[in-house]
Design a protein that fits this description.
Length: 290
């Protein structure tokens, strides 16, 4: 079947070195397809350009978040007290001088815990601090006593809420603030809010036992963990809960995912520390240097 004249397009090729021009006949549908291919390539290039721009914007946003976090951490830090010099009568390098150094550090940790309203530890002198009877202990016995004490102290600290449930900047602090749902009213905010994206991991800040895991009204999906010294931590607005009531958790365990469930204006983590059932300022527990 002979194609119609309208189905064929003629392309004229002119060579400067030759006077005679050449013509090439191509079916019009092939030219149309070539146009579609060109549009397709243009669309792919545009999509890739948009993706590069989006990733660049996300990278800048993450850099800004990191700067905010570093600035907030800097505000929370204070200078660590200088180490107490050993008494002149303590022989340098002896077992008792090392033990005294350990005892000084234990007292410093004890002071940090007391500032948080926690029950302090009894730091008994085992030598080098005026306890002559204790100083007469053989080195092996002195080391053994401190080893047992440090094990107890380490275990206790593990069950005391410290640090960040997720490393990110704050979006709201503890205390009175403007109601995010009604700016004409003020409300008491019993915790602090951490910035985050849906699905980000939420980690428990201390070892303990899960006493609640489920829906809790304005808190949305919520997890509460009981710790020692009548302390409790709460993690609210979760998109997913990873633990069950009665489950024992270890500090740093993943207990849920960041979300925006319940009474929430956007994706974030609401974090509380409670003492005897009453909320206290969690900022005191974010670092030992408070």
């Amino acid at each position: 079947m002979k194609p119609k004249t309208s189905d064929i397009s003629t392309i004229v090729i002119i060579n400067k070195n030759q006077q005679q021009a050449k013509s090439l006949q191509i079916k019009t549908k092939h030219i149309e397809r070539l146009r579609h291919y060109a549009l397709g390539v243009f669309a792919v290039v545009a999509a890739l350009s948009g993706l590069v721009f989006y990733l660049h914007s996300q990278n800048k946003e993450q850099e800004e978040r990191n700067k905010q976090l570093q600035a907030q951490i800097a505000k929370l830090k204070i200078a660590v007290p200088a180490a107490v010099a050993n008494p002149a009568n303590t022989q340098q390098g002896s077992a008792q001088s090392y033990i005294q150094s350990i005892e000084t550090k234990l007292k410093t940790i004890n002071d940090y815990l007391k500032r948080r309203g926690l029950k302090g530890f009894a730091v008994k002198s085992t030598g080098g601090s005026g306890n002559n009877e204790a100083a007469k202990l053989p080195d092996s016995e002195a080391y053994s006593l401190y080893d047992d004490y440090l094990k107890h102290l380490t275990s206790t600290i593990a069950f005391t809420p410290m640090g960040y449930p997720r490393i990110s900047s704050f979006t709201s602090f503890f205390g009175y603030r403007s109601d995010p749902f009604n700016s004409e009213h003020a409300e008491f905010h019993p915790g602090i809010d951490f910035q985050g994206r849906r699905g980000d991991e939420v980690k428990c800040t201390a070892s303990g036992k899960v006493v609640f895991a489920g829906w809790a009204g304005g808190y949305g999906n919520c997890v509460r963990i009981q710790h020692i010294n009548n302390l409790e931590t709460l993690y609210g607005h979760l998109s997913k809960i990873e633990v069950k009531v009665g489950q024992k958790v270890t500090v740093g365990d993943d207990i849920g995912k960041v979300g925006s469930t319940g009474h929430s204006t956007g994706t974030h983590l609401h974090y509380e520390v409670r003492k005897d059932g009453k909320p206290i300022n969690p900022v005191k527990f974010l670092t030992l240097n408070k």
